[in-house]
């Protein structure tokens, strides 16, 4: 089920499935994350998880910290890839980066057993504060994310 969450004037696109949520790293998400990253991530994750529980009748079995780190890393990789392609003007390298960007643009966050990488995000969850601290403060200052 596709959902749009309006948070701080931005429309965050998410897909809810049993044991899985998909968050789309688009310009609206980037605009939403501009500024108070940690508080905004918490609000977004709490909103999505509450809606998930209401829709499926059970809580999504992923910690907030694990979800935040997974989404943050994907968005940051999306940001780095787009920035890289703006600087590096070698077509075959840009084509390779574009393929990697397709994977970063849709953040599949699944419960253990559905998401083979859940253990990685759970392990990194304890570093959430560090990740949010190094996250760019104005993701789209250079207008690199247009959709």
How would you sum up this structure, described in words?
- The structure is a single chain.
- The protein is α+β, with helices and mostly antiparallel strands.
- It is built from 6 helices and 4 strands, in the order E-E-E-H-H-H-H-E-H-H.
- The chain has a 4-stranded antiparallel beta sheet.
- The chain is globular, with a radius of gyration of 15 Å.
Write the layout of secondary structure elements.
Blueprint: E1 2-7, E2 10-17, E3 20-24, H1 27-32, H2 37-56, H3 64-87, H4 91-105, E4 106-110, H5 118-124, H6 128-134
Antiparallel strand pairs: 1-2, 2-3, 3-4
Helix pairs in contact: 3-4, 3-5
Distance between the termini: 21 Å
State the strand order across the main sheet: 1-2-3-4
Number of strands: 4
Structural class: alpha+beta
**How large, in whole angstroms, is the Cα Rg?**
15 Å
Q: Per DSSP, what share of the residues sits in E-state strands of 2 or more residues?
A: 15-25%
- Form type: globular
Which blocks of ≥5 consecutive residues have pLDDT under 50?
Answer: none
Biggest sheet architecture: 4 strands, antiparallel
Give the mean pLDDT.
91
What is the ordering of alpha helices and beta strands? EEEHHHHEHH
Number of helices: 6
The portion of residues assigned to helices is 40-55%
């Amino acid at each position: 089920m596709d959902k749009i969450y309006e948070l701080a004037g931005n429309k965050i696109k998410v897909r809810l499935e049993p044991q899985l949520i998909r968050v789309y790293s688009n310009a609206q998400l980037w605009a939403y994350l501009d500024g108070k990253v940690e508080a905004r991530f918490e609000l977004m994750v709490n909103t999505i998880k509450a809606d998930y529980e209401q829709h499926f009748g059970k809580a999504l079995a992923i910690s907030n910290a694990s979800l935040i780190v997974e989404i943050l890393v994907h968005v940051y990789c999306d940001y780095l890839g787009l920035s890289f392609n703006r600087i590096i003007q070698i077509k075959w390298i840009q084509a390779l980066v574009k393929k990697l960007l397709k994977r970063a643009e849709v953040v599949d966050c699944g419960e253990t057993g559905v998401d083979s990488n859940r253990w990685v995000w759970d392990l990194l969850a304890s570093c959430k504060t560090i990740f949010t601290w190094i996250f760019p403060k104005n993701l789209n200052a250079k207008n690199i994310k247009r959709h």
